[in-house]
Amino acid sequence: MRNPFRSEEEAFRFVWLTILYSALIVAGSFINVWVGLAVFLVETAFIVWWIFRRGRREQPIPQVPPPHPEGERRILVVANETVGGEPLLQEIRRRSEGVDEHVFVVVPALNSPIRHWTSDEDGAREAAQKRLEDSLASLRASGVDARGEIGDSDPLQAIEDGIRTYAPDELIISTHPPERSHWLERGVVAGARERFALPVTHVVVDLGMPSVGSEPPGLQK
Amino acid sequence: MGARAVSAAAGAQGHGHGDATLHPPPIHYSSRIAPVIVGIFLFIGSEIMLFGSFFTVYFFDRVVNNVHPWPPIDPATGHPFERPWFVALVNTCILVTSSFTMHWATVSVKRNNRAGFQAGMVLTILLGLTFLLTQVIEYHRLGFNTSDTAFAATFFGLTGLHGCHVFIGLLILTVMAVRAFRGHFSPEHHHGIEVGGIYWHFVDVMWIVVYVTVYIL
């Protein structure tokens, strides 16, 4: 849901919507009290429906083909606690074979909602920075050209930022197994496939088990 | 952009101690919403709760107490309370117009139109002042007071609470206008105008709700 008071312009628009909303109720009430009540209920129900529908609907982000030489492949990797997991590293190495690969790792600075809304992100960013550095060190040790950033605390926002800045050819999202993954519970992978027009691969990393396979790569335009 | 490149070197430098050349690390915040806007959002949230409590009292008196007819009978005159809906309608138009001028001021500062910005601020203040003065004059002509019935108490409570917000809004607008005439704000830096404008539109929205609820329905 978007905050209707996000900017002065949106607040100004909200004034007019309030006038329209109220005027319809008043008009209904002049006919009959129950008509006014019905108008109020219908309008309110419509607004609630519209807010939730708009919140769920995600427009695919236009993906401009990245201007890079033939044979070069840019991979955007988004992961948090699983960023150093062996299945993810294996998947990156596998996809890097035979091409001039460039890996860009985004580690969202996950935070509690209260800390997020009060902009208290220092701790989350420090933890994400540590994970990012460990991950980049592992990838570079494997001969993969990797660099990275700390991303927004919202994984989908972090992916969008990464896509806009890095223009990747494909996206790899690494998560915990379904029974332990908050990202899967929040529909991050499904949301990314719906929202971003580039191939998305989901890698499952079980940090508690040394040998774990990844989910079959799911590609979706 | 939410994702900002943070090199290991920069991270180490930002958290170092004892070096006079070091400075605090840059502030990071979500790409979705700036802290200043979060602040005004939380403030408006608290305001909605405050107004909500007053509306609760009003509807308790009206619905739960099941008072008929509405407005109730004024014990002093034996007739229903007169609500000056027409004057309040004119006042509503004045306040809505002030939202227009406030928006004009904000658009002007974004377009680096200093004259439009200043004129918008002055007009908004004048319209807000007119609204407040009309409200005060109308209070004197109502013919009932806060202690007359529960209806009178909630009427003055809701409209008075809103009047206080208009007064505070006028103080904010005055500070903004003074800064506008001193050459403050620019197309790049005008958060003070954005936030003040949001507050003023919120006051406008609340008045529409108060007017429809208290004066019309």
Describe the structure.
The complex is a heterodimer of chains A (221) and B (217). By secondary structure, chain A is of the alpha/beta class. Chain A folds into 2 domains: 8-56, no CATH class; 72-204, HUPs (Rossmann fold, 3-Layer(aba) Sandwich), CATH 3.40.50. Chain A contains 8 helices and 5 strands. In chain A, helix 1 (8-31) packs antiparallel against helix 2 (33-56). Chain A is elongated. Chain A starts with 7 loop residues before the first helix and ends in a 17-residue tail after the last strand. Mean pLDDT of chain A is 79; it is low at 210-221. Chain B is built from 6 helices and no strands. Chain B has one domain: Four Helix Bundle (Hemerythrin (Met), subunit A) (Up-down Bundle), CATH 1.20.120. With 217 residues, chain B is an all-alpha fold. The A-B interface holds A 3, 5-9, 11-12, 14-15, 18-19, 22, 25-26, 29, 36, 106, 109, 116-119, 121-122, 125-126, 129, 133, 149-154, 157-158, 161-162, 164-165 and B 1-6, 8, 11, 15, 25, 27-33, 35, 37-38, 40-42, 44, 96, 99, 102-103, 106, 193-194, 197-198, 201-202, 204-205, 208-209, 212, 216-217.
